[in-house]
Specification:
heterodimer, A: mainly alpha, 0% strand, B: alpha+beta, Rossmann fold, OB fold (Dihydrolipoamide Acetyltransferase, E2P), 2 domains, six-stranded mixed sheet
Chain lengths: 279, 371
């Protein structure tokens, strides 16, 4: 019977092929863009590679052909960090609040989830119309931030629910019993125990905002964020510099994820230290 | 010390919506006593414990500890410490920091509080594990950490919420001994919630039996076990057969009871009863003689044996007497082996009239402990 269970049937090969295809579609395009961004000076947008160089990366920073790329990049990073901080803080407290069945909790939850379902471009249109109606100027740090939060907050809240699922509220009760005041319970017990989960929420807050296009399009006002800038470039830039941007932005996304993992590792190490020595 | 840790509960009620979880409870727990609160799930024992701890505020009534009214006082300021059922140790802190936590929130310096915590861990024989985190400990060790964390502030009252229920049988018996020894060492009041009868009997100076938010009986284990107040207490604590009948006549303090099947019983402590009244009374299961032939007409019962269980030091024989409730006899094992019985056999039980114990309380529920 052990024999029967270890033999691979046709389903195995079919599913393995399906999975291979999935991986190829997932990473193939990224790999091609990564390779082509190191295209030689005389190379074009397609294979073959005419030598290997970092010319297009240098071109990206030195040439003025690409518009305000650096500005767009820094705006997107600032926007991402703002979204991250606001999302992490709001989702922590919203998640804690939703543990109690307060009056109107159900409708409030569904209301906040609706903005995940509404098409982003429509939401952006609504925000821009609303701003004009009130006579406010559209700004990337104001209207676009709001648009991004409509996306990152409900997302972060859902993650927070999953994180809190494994949180035992008797820890807070035990702290209260030991004489801790609400602020001390939050600082010494709730936040430290939830911290790895909070990093996950923050990470989503950043990446969802950093590469958000539809919600940004009509809400950034006069100055573009990076996804809009790149989108514009695809129509008028015809050099491998386009790929260089792709490589750089992907690298930044990976860097953010790496930082998050390092942060979690440091926490684990601190905890190990707390147990390994007097700390 | 003794008076400082006395607990006075006066007319305490706790409402959850329309449900009375605790209903006008009056209870005094002597300072330095070991008090066990027992009852089926939902009887209000845990709610009462949490109100003493300050995790719940009574809807009405007052609670005083050491004569000081603490009804609305913040938990942590009332001289109580609660040990949680699942221990609720902080997963991100070492044992030292777990134990030192309440000193930390009181603003004590790191070196000072850690030294105190290590001394407390020494006391529960866990000094060598002081730098571990809770997930690395066994259940019994976690419990000792929870104890150390609760005791570090020198509470006047230690509250324990089903402290032994998460342990296996062997460890449970050992920790039971440790708890009792700790309590007599410290001389403070322990209030221990449990749903295990032998635990309550073995540990307590005072057993509080609860049902439906009310205290049915609060007395010494001997009183509760041997002289139950109501049919419910008799059934819940075990060790008693509950019988019913009608008072036939009363002569002084002695009454004669007639059971539905005509058997007569003599009740010695029947003061205040009048002829014609329906009564319930109980008989200790281990004080009953069984024989194969009818011997006496009074203070007796007979029926078919439905089950025989060997229990080591005694044999448990269950009879169907046709009165609805199983009649159980604990036979001495030597006595049983001298004249073994069989399931299906009709046997006759007799006992001395002074064993009939009048159940004054009216709570007639089955008292099946919810496990």
């Amino acid at each position: 019977m052990a024999h029967a269970s270890t033999r691979r049937g046709p389903a195995f090969y079919f599913l393995a092929a399906f999975f291979a295809l999935f991986v190829a579609f997932l990473y193939g395009p990224m790999l091609i863009i990564f390779l082509l961004s190191f295209q030689g000076t005389s190379g074009g947008l397609t294979f073959p590679m005419r030598g290997v160089s970092t010319h297009w990366f240098v071109d990206l920073w030195s040439s003025s052909r690409y518009g305000d790329l650096g500005g767009a990049f820094s705006r997107s990073v600032i926007l991402g960090v703002l979204s991250m901080l606001i999302t992490a803080a709001c989702c922590l407290f919203a998640g804690l609040a939703f543990r109690r069945k307060f009056w109107g909790a159900g409708p409030l939850f569904y209301l906040s989830i609706v903005s995940l379902v509404v098409p982003g471009i429509l939401l952006g249109l609504g925000i821009s119309q609303f701003f004009q109606l009130l006579g406010f100027q559209l700004h990337w740090w104001l209207s676009a931030l709001g648009a991004h939060l409509s996306w990152t907050l409900p997302f972060g809240l859902l993650i927070m629910f999953a994180v809190l699922n494994r949180f035992d509220s008797s820890w807070e009760e035990a702290a209260r019993d030991a004489g801790a005041r609400p602020a001390q319970i939050l600082a010494y017990i709730t936040v430290p125990i939830l911290f790895p989960g909070l990093i996950a929420v923050a990470l989503f807050g950043f990446t969802l905002s950093y590469d958000e296009y539809p919600r940004s399009l009509l809400t950034v006002g006069g100055l573009n964020t990076l996804p809009i800038e790149i989108s514009n470039m695809t129509t008028n830039v015809t050099t491998p510099a386009l790929y260089a941007i792709g490589t750089v932005t992907s690298a930044i996304s990976f860097l953010v994820i790496a930082i998050a993992f390092i942060a979690i590792a440091i926490i684990q190490k601190n905890r190990a230290r707390a147990r390994g020595e007097k700390a | 010390m003794t008076d400082q840790s006395r607990i006075d509960i006066r007319k305490v009620t706790k409402l959850y919506g329309g449900v009375r979880a605790v209903n006008e409870v009056d209870l005094t727990i002597d300072g330095g006593a070991y008090c066990c609160m027992i009852g089926p799930s939902g009887c209000g024992k845990t709610t009462l414990l949490r109100m003493i701890a300050g995790h719940e505020i009574p809807s009405s009534g007052a609670i005083a500890i050491g004569g000081e009214d603490v009804t609305a006082l913040r938990t942590g300021d009332r001289g109580t410490a609660l040990m949680f059922q699942n221990y609720a140790l902080f997963p991100h802190l070492s044992l030292t920091d777990n134990v030192a936590f309440s000193l930390r929130v009181r603003g004590q310096g790191a070196d000072q509080r850690r030294a105190a915590a290590r001394a407390m861990l020494e006391r529960v024989q866990l000094r060598h594990l002081a730098d571990r985190v809770p997930s690395e400990l066994s259940g019994g060790q976690q419990q000792r950490v929870a104890l150390a964390r609760a005791l570090i502030t020198n509470p006047k009252v230690l509250l324990l919420d089903e402290p032994l229920s998460a342990l296996d049988e062997f460890l449970r018996l050992r920790m039971r001994v440790e708890l009792k020894r700790l309590q007599s060492d410290l001389g403070i009041t322990f209030v221990h919630v449990t749903h295990t009868q032998p635990e309550a009997i073995a540990l307590a100076d005072q057993v509080v039996v609860m049902d439906h938010g009310l205290i049915e009986q609060a007395a010494s284990p001997r009183q509760v076990y041997g002289r139950p107040h109501s049919p419910y207490v008799a059934r819940f604590m075990g060790g008693q057969n509950v019988l019913a009948g009608k008072i036939e006549k009363v002569t002084g303090a002695v009454a004669v009871i007639a059971a539905p099947d005509g058997t007569r019983y003599d009740l010695i402590d029947a003061s205040g009863l009048v002829a014609g009244a329906p009564v319930k009374f109980s008989v200790r299961r281990d004080r009953i003689a069984l024989s194969d032939a009818a011997t006496a007409a009074r203070n007796a019962a007979h029926g078919k044996i439905v089950n025989i269980e060997y229990q080591g030091t005694f044999v448990k024989v269950s009879l169907d007497t046709g009165r609805g409730e199983e009649f159980i006899v604990y036979m001495d094992d030597d006595e049983y082996l001298a004249a073994p019985k069989e399931v299906g056999q009709v046997v006759y039980a007799t006992w001395k009239p002074e064993l009939n114990h009048f159940l004054r309380g009216t709570n007639d529920s089955a008292g099946t402990p919810h496990e």
